[in-house]
Amino acid sequence: MHQGRWIGKGLELCGFGHYFARRRVENSAVSGISTTPDEVKVLGRTGGVTAHHVADDTEDVGYMAAQAAREACRAAGLDPKDVDLLILSNWTDRWCAPEWAPLIAMQIGADKALAFDICQGCAGFVHGVHTAAMYLSAEDYQHAVVIGSERFSRRVRPGSTGELVVSDAAGAAVLSRNGRDGLIDSVMHTTGTLAHTTTVDPRTGWVRSQRQLNDLAVIAIADAFQEILERNDLGHDEVDWLIPHAATEPFQEGLRQRLAFPPAKILSNFFTRGNTSSASIPSTLSEALETGRAHRGELIASPSLGGGVWSYGCLLYRILPDETTRD
Questions:
Q1: Where are the beta strands (DSSP E) in the chain?
Q2: Which pLDDT value is given to residue 326?
Q3: Which end of the chain, C or N, has fewer beta carbons within 10 A?
């Protein structure tokens, strides 16, 4: 049996937060939507999403990220001034300079934090936790905040089915080195051979995905999930929840079929919130814990894939019980 790479490092995901753009649009009220054969193949006919969120000009990546980060710190009982590391995942609002992360650290009062941006598409949260764990395991850092913040609505063709499927949101998690092994393992891979599968048109800024996207994505995510199970000598039945990146309705159906994983054990806020890219996993976790859908102590696997750079990976972890409630 391979022991998870983070076992013995005392790393714990101990607080989550989320923020969804204030404007919530019910998809049943939207008319005049057009689609293309490629969009039908990638997104499905309707996308299955009941509503989506659209940020206004005041809700930029930094604003949404700061709201989610503050909530995650409160949930973890952590004063932002004690944050050593802040990692921001974002691909929808890339610019030359400055990076978002140092601005977010300043906004939340994490004045001493090393802060930087990463860009791994929708896999950014998994990559962010994977990266933060390496920093914290070196014992020079103790508390990290990992955030996914995306304005995805600005990266789809106006008037298309894509507008119904994607949302603007942020999700955040606190990862602390506190002596408890909540984060068990993580894997992360990239391959440039499939980078063409999802691109952004430089003239419009809109995402363009090839028809084979979902088929390839399902294979990559299933492989990452299977890899993490085999590395830790686990069977499907030992995982309490699968919380993957939301992606699209055809993708989710393809993943269920390939993994033969019980639908009742797959958690996602996709159908009520839309695809929020790198914010989808932490925002789903935050909402699930808040509503009591998920419980502390349960074993969770979170696979994800990011198009464009074609990165994919998986986290394996438990949200441990509060120390005050332990026997």
A1: 11-20, 23-26, 51-54, 85-89, 114-118, 143-151, 168-177, 183-190, 198-200, 207-209, 241-242, 299-306, 311-318
A2: 39
A3: C
The C-alpha angle with vertex 53 and arms to 48 and 54, in degrees rounded to 5, equals 130
Residue 54 CB contacts under 8 Å (≥ 6 apart), including other chains: 21, 23, 25, 153, 167, 168
Name the nearest CA neighbour of 65 among 283, 311, 236, 230: 283
Tokens of 171: 């999700």
Contact predicate 214/42, CB 8 Å: yes
CATH 3.30.420.40 for domain 1-319: no
Using DSSP, state whether 21 is helix, strand or coil. coil
Cα distance between residue 16 and residue 215, in whole Å: 31
Contact 12, 183 (CB under 8 A): yes
Q: What is the DSSP letter of 233?
A: T
Do residues 172 and 86 lie in contact, with contact meaning Cβ atoms separated by under 8 Å? Answer: no
DSSP 240: S
Rounded CA-CA distance 246/120 in Å is 15
The dihedral formed by the CA atoms of 164, 165, 167 and 170, expressed in degrees to the nearest 10: 160
Q: How far apart are CA 229 and CA 224, in angstroms?
A: 9
**Helices marked H in 77-138:** 100-108, 124-137
Q: Give the three-class secondary structure for 107.
A: helix
Q: Is the dihedral of CA 123, 269, 261, 209 positive or negative?
A: negative
**pLDDT tens readout for residues 170-200:** 999 999 999 999 999 999 999 888 888 888 8
Cα separation, 16 vs 6, in Å, equals 20
Residue ranges of the domains in the chain? 1-319
What's the pTM?
Answer: 0.94
